[in-house]
Structure formats: structure tokens, C-alpha cells
């Protein structure tokens, strides 16, 4: 038996009652009414899990039973079940293993990559310094800086902040991710046989990803032209070598077509979520200057002004660490999480979730779980500090999800957030433009990002 939920209309299900720009709030309201397990109908029946208890029960206690991704028409038509995000089974296991190993070999979690992030932080600070304390929109220069870190790992190169072609590419990704959370995308997933045949904004999603994929394929072609198997430069080089090793095992997915989708996944995931988090961070510092002052005081005490921050500083900076964690919690970048699918009948709570059912365990319901957080709806770094001011971990801190499908880039993202955030607050004080009251208005697409905003980066 399916879990309870709102009464659905024939044919259209719950499409008419759910506003994609507010879906995370509407699902929270349904949870208040129907409990921590309920179901909705958006093209097909979806079981929604809410709160830390149900999240852990499904994805940690019964993790193997929810390891697959469902077939979502829009993403199936764009990505064809390739890559790291959309694939399942044997191919997914091999590709995830290879990606994690390769990223580790190129320095993720090590001093070598830390130096690269410190260098990028310096270039970013110089770009912000060029604004001379005047109001500007930081979002795309932040995107470019964050993207350069993953670009060095997958493409072997970074892109200048003045590179118009790369800026256009980042804008295409930004708009595609936004449109993926629109009503048109919902309609496509509910009625793909109709939407494939009619014009509309959903066509832009395909056009944008085609252009980004063309860029990725061009980079792969360039790599093949000067590839030296004995001296791999990056992820693409390593994948080309792996193709040779796995040529007799087609099911593992080591082919050029899948290389383009795996590279796309790493490129986009390594750009979009971390840059969005850092943009929320600057907006929160704009909004809460007292928090910013405390972070800067800790930076001055532990690091000073004569050297860049390093990961070795983090254990000595509990307040800054707490602020970064609270930015991730309140920024709520992926409020809905990514869809999972039950691979066998599984009991969660009092209900059996049948094999093949689409499951959505909302991260927002964990990050704002009222039974886990003292002041869930308030920006409060104290959530991550004990009575003595030491940093403390929280079970309900899951911005990277958890279980077998947890974000493979968590370690990289944590390095980037600490080094970029501390280096920016070491160099600048961020404030709203004169006469402007900062707001926390959001833009809801596939991710939850700030509305375009301006700030002043005043050199310290």
C-alpha cells in the first residue's frame, strides 16, 4: 500500500497544485498534514520521505535498496542514462570508483590541490579588488573561480575571468539548471510524448546542454590529439587510458560517448553547487555583519594578513568552520535532493515502498528538521558549536546527501568552501550598496540559488 498523500486529479495528478518555485515549501506543508512519509503524483507516483529519521532509515539502513536512479524523461532524453549521475548498476559502480580514484590521484584532499585553490583564490581576490569597493554582482566571477578548480582536474586547464566564451558557457549552464526546475520541465516529465512534439522554453534546456556537451567533446578531441598515455594530465587523459583497459567489457561504460557525459557531470556538479554555496555565503555576510566581524577576528588571530589560509588552519578556526556549515545548511542548495528508486520492495516506517517506485528524500526536511536543530529557520552558527566554543558535528547536516549515492565531490567542495571563503574575508569586508537593505530572496530551479544581487567588496 502506498503512503497517504493529497488527493490527485485524474491525468494531471498534483501538477496544478504544485508551484515549482515553491515546491520545497509545499512538500513541507504536505509533511505537516500527512506525516513524514507521503506520496504525490507528478506523471507517476512519488514517495516523499521527510526528516533525518526517515532519511537514515532509507539511505543508510536500507541503502542498497535505494541505490538506483529512476528514469526521468527529461534527463533520459538529454543524458541517455550515461555519466555519473544518471547511470545505474555495474556501469555506475565502475564509473564512480574510477572518478573517485582519479580525483584523489590528482590531489583532492591533498596539499597539491590546496596550492591550486590558494592560487585561484588569489586571482579571485585580485578580480574583486579591481571593483575598488564599488557595487557589483559577484555571482559570475565566483562561478568562474570555482569552475576553474574542477576544470584543472578534468580539462587540465583554467579559464581567465575575461574569457567571454567560457563566461557564455557558464551562463548556459546556469540557465539550464534554472529551467530544469520550471513548470515546463515538470510538464515534460509528466507528459513526455506530448512535450517532445511541441515548442516552448523546455527546448532551451536541450539547446543549452547540446552547446555545453559540444564544448566538452571539443576538449576530448584536443586531448586525443596530443595524448601521452605515460603522462596523464587530468581526468580525460586517465579515462582515455582506461578505455583501452576495458575495451572487452562494454558494460563498464569506458567509451568516448560516456566520457563526454561523465566529464560533463564532473564539470557541472563541480561548478554549480559550490559556487552557489559561496554566493549564499557572501549574501549572508552582507546580511549579518556581526557574524562577518567574528569570522574576520578569528582569521586575524589564527592566520593574520601575511599568508593565505590553509586547510591546516581549519581545526583552529571553529567559529569560521561553524559559519561555513551554517551557510551550507541555510543556503539549502538542493532542497529536494536527487531522485532515487526502490530496487526491491522495502519497508520504511509503516509502509512498503514497492520495487520501481520513485523516491524523493528531501534534504530541506533534514537541514531544517525541527527535532534536530535548536533554531532551524534562523541563521545561527551556534548550531555547530558546543558550550566551550568548539566545533561540533551534527547528524542532520547532510547537504551532500548520504549513503551510496552521496555526492562524490564532497571532499573537494569542503576544501574549496573553506579556502575561498576565508581568503575572501581575509582580504575584504562585504557590505550592501549604500541605501540598500540586503534580502535573502531566492531563485528556484534544479538548485536553490540567490536572486541576482550586488555588494561592495571593501579592501581591509
UniProtKB/TrEMBL annotation:
PANTHER family reported for this sequence: CYP2J25 PROTEIN-RELATED, CYTOCHROME P450 508A4-RELATED
GO BP of this protein: organic acid metabolic process; xenobiotic metabolic process
Keyword Nuclease included in the entry's annotation: no
A GO MF label: oxidoreductase activity, acting on paired donors, with incorporation or reduction of molecular oxygen, reduced flavin or flavoprotein as one donor, and incorporation of one atom of oxygen
Presence of keyword ATP-binding: no
Residues annotated for heme binding in this entry: 407
Cellular compartments annotated: Membrane
SUPFAM superfamilies: Cytochrome P450
InterPro entries: Cyt_P450 (IPR001128), Cyt_P450_CS (IPR017972), Cyt_P450_E_grp-I (IPR002401), Cyt_P450_E_grp-I_CYP2D-like (IPR008069), Cyt_P450_sf (IPR036396), Cytochrome_P450_fam2 (IPR050182)
Keyword list, A-Z: Heme, Iron, Membrane, Metal-binding, Monooxygenase, Oxidoreductase
Name of the featured protein: Cytochrome P450
Organism of this sequence: Synaphobranchus kaupii
Family stated for the protein in its record: Belongs to the cytochrome P450 family.
Cofactor: heme
GO cellular component: cytoplasm; membrane
